[in-house]
Amino acid sequence: MSILAHCFARLTQPQPKHELRGFKVTDVNRTRKIGVACRSLQELKRKACAKLNVTNDLTEINIYLLDGSLVDDEYFHTLDAQTTLILQKPDEKILSDADLLYETLRRVNIDYLTVGDHAAKFLTENLKRKVAVLNVVLNRDDSKTIFSKREDHPEWFTGLETNITTKEAYMHRRCQDRIRGYLYKTIEQIKNSDGWKNNNQARFRMERIINYLKMQLREDHYFGYYFDRSCSSEGENNLEDNVDGVDNNCYDHCPCKLRNIIDVKIEINEENNENNHFDNDEIDAKRLMTRDDLSTTKRLAIDDEESNIYKIFSRMRSEQKSLCDSKGEFKCEGVWNTNFCRYGDKHRINPYRSHEELVLFSTWNLDHKIERSRTLVPELIKVCEEDDVNEKFVFGFYENLFTIKNLQLVHIVCHDKGSHK
């Protein structure tokens, strides 16, 4: 099938009717929480705005995960039912981790609001210093660090989705979300470029590269194992997920699993859901995808592979290693132009130890040594505008954008947001 015919088929084919699913939606201040059953991101926005008395145009409304990840139409259909989402109106600020930490301090120390106010001022004025101090005073009780399951360490899972049953699964997905965020930001920057808007040949080349990035990331499990201690090179704790008794390097929420279980789910749906009718859109929608949804997903994945001109490669299991040790401790790798962290042991963290450290870990960054927005993407756009892009260049771009070849984990103090020149 030619590229032109492929695009025409995508535009003219009937859109799949997605299954009704339930979500929890809150405002940016977390003061109200409502339930919404919907089939699409647009429907979720419309119903949530009606229930929260929001009158803004839907195009001005954004939906975020609790960790601050922006949800778009494509990512929406990968979310689990009953996920809690944040609705943001124009000019509203999503609560940062520093804000949440302060609110926690204020509630715990309700009789000492003056101290809480000083803490708020401290957090607002010097975020980096705040992180350094909190890292010192955090609870260092290691007695439950090794525990993995919710029932063994329930306080660690405070506020997390109920379908998250192990620490490793949650950390795996959080890393996937960060990598997926780089993909979305890259696509957005490409589509805002003059080359995309005004040069048809360059746009055609960029579309093929975007298609490749998506498929290769699915093959690489969105590098979720970077934060997953069960993939530690030490291999001491044997916390790897098992599916049907077979060791697997990812979890049920990982995109690669969808390709493996599609046929099984289709068979289940044929037996159990054939006569189900969901007329009431306020029911609990925690169900499997429909047969049509799964068939469409499988067909689109096959179409993507057929239209891709770049080779998709698989990594050896020995290459799929986490950035932490077997207990879950991470070390800062230092400022981008150095080979070590000058703060030494002061810049260590174990998000598997406590809920407080898990929250604090969100302030650590995967920093691009060769910058994504200032260097990598502009160079890609320039090459696409000038000539066909060879496979070696595309592979190098992918590695620099998503892998530890160019990414290093850093404490917020060591995250240099200035130009890396």
Automatic annotation (TrEMBL):
<dbReference type="InterPro" id="IPR044925">
    <property type="entry name" value="His-Me_finger_sf"/>
</dbReference>
<dbReference type="Pfam" id="PF09230">
    <property type="entry name" value="DFF40"/>
</dbReference>
<dbReference type="InterPro" id="IPR039729">
    <property type="entry name" value="DFF40"/>
</dbReference>
<dbReference type="InterPro" id="IPR003508">
    <property type="entry name" value="CIDE-N_dom"/>
</dbReference>
<dbReference type="InterPro" id="IPR015311">
    <property type="entry name" value="DFF40_C"/>
</dbReference>
<dbReference type="GO" id="GO:0005634">
    <property type="term" value="C:nucleus"/>
</dbReference>
<dbReference type="GO" id="GO:0004520">
    <property type="term" value="F:DNA endonuclease activity"/>
</dbReference>
<dbReference type="GO" id="GO:0005737">
    <property type="term" value="C:cytoplasm"/>
</dbReference>
<dbReference type="Pfam" id="PF02017">
    <property type="entry name" value="CIDE-N"/>
</dbReference>
<feature type="domain" description="CIDE-N">
    <location>
        <begin position="19"/>
        <end position="96"/>
    </location>
</feature>
<keyword id="KW-0053">Apoptosis</keyword>
<protein>
    <recommendedName>
        <fullName>CIDE-N domain-containing protein</fullName>
    </recommendedName>
</protein>
<dbReference type="GO" id="GO:0006309">
    <property type="term" value="P:apoptotic DNA fragmentation"/>
</dbReference>
<dbReference type="GO" id="GO:0016787">
    <property type="term" value="F:hydrolase activity"/>
</dbReference>
